[in-house]
Amino acid sequence: MNIINAIARKIDTFSLRLRLTIGIAVLAALGISSITVWTTWKMQQLLINSHKQNIENLTVRFPHDVELYSEMMPPEVGLQKAINNLTTKNIFLWVKSPEEKFLAQSRTSDNLSSARLSELMSIAEMPITPQVHQINQRYFVLCSEALRVRGKVLGKLFVVQDITRDQTMFLAMAHSLAIASFLIVVVISVVSAFYVRRSLQPLCDLSQMTAVISVVDLSKAQLSVDHAPSEVRELAQTFNMMLSRLSQSWEQERQFVSNVSHELRTPLTIVYGYLQSVLRRQDNLTEVQQEALETAASEAERTIHLLEDLLDLARADSGHLHFHVESFLLNELLIELVEMSENYSGREIKYLVNSEALEVKADYNRLKQVLLNLIDNAVKYSEPNTPISLNANQQEQEVIIQVCDQGYGIPLQHQSRIFERFYRVDESRNQATGGTGLGLSIVKTIVEGMGGKVSVRSRLGEGSIFTVILPVK
Question: Which CATH number applies to 16-172?
Fold first, then answer.
């Protein structure tokens, strides 16, 4: 039962393959069953008609035989003589007078007992035309006709032919034909299932190829399905044209973001510098003016950081984000980061590093940017009175750096997407903290650019752990 349930779960009831297979199987079943039924009916008709024709010939011949024998012997003896001549092991005759008295009848045989013959003879009405009747698992063709000799009605002739043997053979053959038809339908279904699977394989290959295409591969992606039907090849060409248009659109968007970010960063930096200069000479400013200038300076600074992040992502997309990768001692960088973060945030940063020197191969400034982003993220999304931990250790040829907080945590369904650009778990909370949704995307881009990996493990109400893994050499 468990195996059946497992198979049922794996079967996609909406798949084209299953629908085509079922459709072919149903059509095959309908077609073969129709042919089988028609063939069986036709064979039955031929068998019955042959027996009916034999009975009709007997009813035509019998009066002539009676007339012939009556010329040479008494009528009663001639009547019995004619019946005896036409009686076989399967054919039985009897004659009744108009007063329903038996004038003559066939003798019983091994095939037909006296009781069964009496049962046949007791049938009150027999059809004038031959008809098939089933009596006690045996089959008979019955017929009756008025017996006229020299224009005089002597009585009524009854003819019965036992067709049980032929009918039994026919039923056995019909049964065998039904089994053969069922097996043919099964074979056609199995063969069609494999044929449909093989025919749809190019579509599956096409789906697998498109599933692995990323933004980076858009300009180089080309779908090719060899030995596929022309319709699938046309679909692949359509996909290739669509990928080409997407690549052009992405390149235009990337170029636009890069140009806009570059053009806006300089004037915003100048504006931010003037605002800071005015704030330093705040003796002549009212409280309202000072608050307005501080807000403007804060927003200008945040916008500058956003533009710098966008420029970094644009450079990474175009392959122009360069790294100065070298080996250096990680301990010194981590101590510097702890001091900077504590002074900037006013929060306690726990520094948990083994006493031995940790050497890592990375870009010093880029790694510093990554860890500052992660620490700043931990500060924003945890309570002010909770500590933040910075851990580092070496395992084989990798250095593992972890930034841990005891904050709100990240829901499981969001953890796989938090490294996407502009993705925010809680929109209102990000607006309150000033987040842009680019910080973790920058972290992932830089870490992977240096040959490392970044991941997150989090539980609601318990905090989050961001792990950065970099090579030692």
Answer: 3.30.450.20
